[in-house]
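WARN retry 2 of 3 for item q-0093 after timeout on previous attempt; input resubmitted unchanged.
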Amino acid sequence: MNCRDRGQVRPMRWLLGVLPLLMALLLGTSPALAADTWSLSDQAGHRLSAQVFEQPFPEYPSGLRIRFNALDAKTTLDHGTDLVLSDSMGQKWNLPNRSEELVPTDGSVVPAGSAQFDLDALMPRPSEALPLHVAVPSGQGVLDFNLSPEEVMELHALGSVQRRSDKT
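OK item q-0093 returned
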């Protein structure tokens, strides 16, 4: 393959990589729920992971959830207090605590380092252009985190996500 041939291959590879994204955009398909795990750290050194997902268990109400998991054994999360999100314009959202959904309905104990909240209460969806602050209730008091622009975009886009219940 000579240099001229290689120069033609690069644009072709790029086009083949971008083509599926363009097709999805043009055909109007909804984005899938992200299975990304976010890593959050506050100024006091608390570290949590967070994941957005659709409630999979039929014994609980369907809907979107956000789950937080402490990344150290000393941090305990509150299983009865709402999660509070706020933006820089003063808008606040209280997301109901759904930590009981972490375990079967047989009365099992909820893991101390995990908590789960109802994202369907995040209405209206936050602006993708404004920073979001998250106040996670814990046994150590409220843990304060600022979301990255990518995380804010993911929460904003939740309104366009097609859910399992919408497909049936």
